[in-house]
From TrEMBL:
<dbReference type="InterPro" id="IPR001296">
    <property type="entry name" value="Glyco_trans_1"/>
</dbReference>
<dbReference type="InterPro" id="IPR050194">
    <property type="entry name" value="Glycosyltransferase_grp1"/>
</dbReference>
<keyword id="KW-0808">Transferase</keyword>
<feature type="domain" description="Glycosyltransferase subfamily 4-like N-terminal">
    <location>
        <begin position="61"/>
        <end position="171"/>
    </location>
</feature>
<dbReference type="Pfam" id="PF13439">
    <property type="entry name" value="Glyco_transf_4"/>
</dbReference>
<protein>
    <submittedName>
        <fullName>Glycosyltransferase family 4 protein</fullName>
    </submittedName>
</protein>
<dbReference type="Pfam" id="PF00534">
    <property type="entry name" value="Glycos_transf_1"/>
</dbReference>
<dbReference type="InterPro" id="IPR028098">
    <property type="entry name" value="Glyco_trans_4-like_N"/>
</dbReference>
<feature type="domain" description="Glycosyl transferase family 1">
    <location>
        <begin position="176"/>
        <end position="341"/>
    </location>
</feature>
<dbReference type="GO" id="GO:0016757">
    <property type="term" value="F:glycosyltransferase activity"/>
</dbReference>
């Protein structure tokens, strides 16, 4: 069985390690759709208001480009003897679907997060998603919420498979949390749905009771500069350290030196949502307890009160309370963390995730 993993861009985002693991462990060919033309998806809005001749020319131009690129995709799939396609993200599935249809190649679509939730994406791809749900042999989701979301969008429930990402438990090995300093760590993109500014505001409250506590925040994104200014304006520079994206080996080391992992995920006005944050899986593999929100797949992988503490979105007071509790009680943090590590080893290893993924793909041939 020869698999082709279709990705959005030629170079994966630093946070998309889960996609790289699919490529590596499935021994798949890789096709990027970065250079694909933009399809004319919506006929409404500004496009509908344009003069007829302008719309006609634009449609003709895109149609010609679509034909050319579909030809190139088909040549790639045929030339490499591809038996089945795994499209990473729903929009990627839409773009590769016409070629798969014409070649009668089975298509599996892996949804990850914003592709299933963000309002602008759902508006743009509404009709194409319906066609995708009909043609695809399988739709993979990474949270139970996402399963329900796809069903609400019209996906048949019998095509949906729940398979969470896996963790390399050797790289993210168990830390000695009971001996750790009073340091919290947050790893993730500085974007709306991760609300890093709320993590900072929560931590500010922590300092009233644990003045020697530290918060490390690692990532990049459009809110990075804003968060940097918040730290400066609150005079937290000695307590909060911001780092741009770091290699995963360095992140694993920082987790080894921390007491707990913190993340305040929420649903912004855009409707965006997490799938299941890979960094929370990695942190638990290191034996760190997690303080986060009842959001998307987080509540699937963090057992509230047993492997960490969960709270409602935007509740920074409760988040600060749980942060403080773990900083003041290293033995409690270690106990929760050990249970988290056991949960990861039992249910969320890389081997288990890839084995399940391969079984799903094989069932579609």
């Amino acid at each position: 069985m020869k698999i082709c993993v279709v990705i959005r861009t030629k170079a994966l985002e630093y946070s998309e390690t889960f996609i790289q693991s699919h490529i590596n462990n499935l021994h798949a060919e890789t096709l990027s759709v970065q250079s694909f033309p933009e399809y004319i998806i919506s006929k409404g809005g500004d496009f509908a208001k344009q003069p007829f001749i302008k719309r006609y020319i634009r449609n003709a131009y895109h149609t010609a480009k679509n034909v050319l690129y579909e030809k190139r995709i088909k040549e790639f799939l045929l030339g490499n003897g591809i038996d089945i396609v795994l499209a990473e993200y729903g929009m990627t599935g839409v773009k590769v679907m016409p070629s798969c249809k014409k070649l009668n190649i089975p298509l599996v679509v892996h949804f990850h997060g914003y592709d299933a939730y963000r309002k602008d994406i759902l508006d743009e791809f509404k009709e194409q998603y319906k066609e995708l749900f009909s043609y695809a042999k399988a739709l993979i989701v990474v949270s139970k919420d996402m399963r329900n979301q796809l069903i609400s969008l019209g996906a048949p429930s019998d095509k949906i498979f729940y398979n969470v990402y896996g963790v390399d438990t050797d790289r993210f090995s168990e830390a000695k949390v009971n001996l750790s300093p009073k340091q919290l760590i947050a790893v993730g993109r500085f974007v709306e749905k991760k609300a890093p500014y709320l993590t900072i505001l929560s931590f500010q409250k922590v300092l009233d009771k644990v003045p020697d506590a530290k918060l490390l925040m690692v990532g990049s994104g459009n809110l990075y500069d804003i968060c940097s200014k918040i730290v400066k304006s609150l005079k937290l520079e000695k307590s909060v350290m911001l780092y741009h994206s770091l290699p995963h080996e360095e992140i694993a080391l920082l987790m080894q030196e921390s007491r707990a992992f913190v993340q305040h995920s929420l649903i912004p006005l855009s409707g965006d949502s997490e799938g299941t944050p890979n960094t929370i899986l990695e942190a638990q593999a290191c034996g760190l307890p997690v303080v986060s929100t009842f959001h998307a797949g987080i509540k699937d992988i963090v057992i509230n009160g047993e492997t960490g503490f969960l709270l409602d979105e935007c509740d920074i007071t409760t988040m600060a309370k749980y942060m403080t509790k773990l900083l003041e009680d290293a033995e409690l943090a270690a106990s929760l963390g050990r249970k988290g590590r056991l949960n990861i080893v039992a249910n969320y290893t890389m081997e288990k995730s890839i084995t399940n993924l391969r079984k799903i793909i094989e069932s579609c041939i």
